[in-house]
Amino acid sequence: VTVDLVGGFDSTIYFLHMDSWRNEMMDQINRINQVLPRIASWRKTAEIQHWMRTVIRKFDHYKSEHHKILKEATTLLELA
């Protein structure tokens, strides 16, 4: 069993500001396919749900930080 992302979510990751953010998100995305083969079938659904919440929460955090950086940069450009 593997999880494949649809809807371009993984390509959205590449628009994040920092390389470390992108790398961490890709690690999180890829983690599920490393975990699923090693757990019992009855745990897979719960593990996928937990993984989805983790990925979304982390992405929302980085997206928020990305917007803050863009806003600061815009302010600096307006003052220049």
Structural key phrases:
single chain; 3 helices; mainly alpha; 0% strand; 80 residues; 76% helix
What would you call the structural class? mainly alpha
The radius of gyration computed from the alpha-carbon positions, rounded to a whole number of angstroms, is 16 Å
Q: Taking all residues together, what is the mean pLDDT?
A: 86
The count of β-strands is 0
What spatial form do the alpha-carbon principal axes imply? elongated
Ranges where pLDDT stays below 50 over 5 or more residues in a row are none
Question: What kind of sheet is the major sheet?
Answer: none
State the distance separating the first and last CA atoms. Answer: 54 Å
Order of helices and strands: HHH
The count of helical stretches stands at: 3
Q: Helix coverage percent of residues?
A: over 70%
Q: Report the β-strand fraction as a percent range.
A: under 5%
How would you explain this protein's 3D organization?
The chain is mainly α. Helix 2 packs antiparallel against helix 3. Helices cover 76% and strands 0% of the residues.
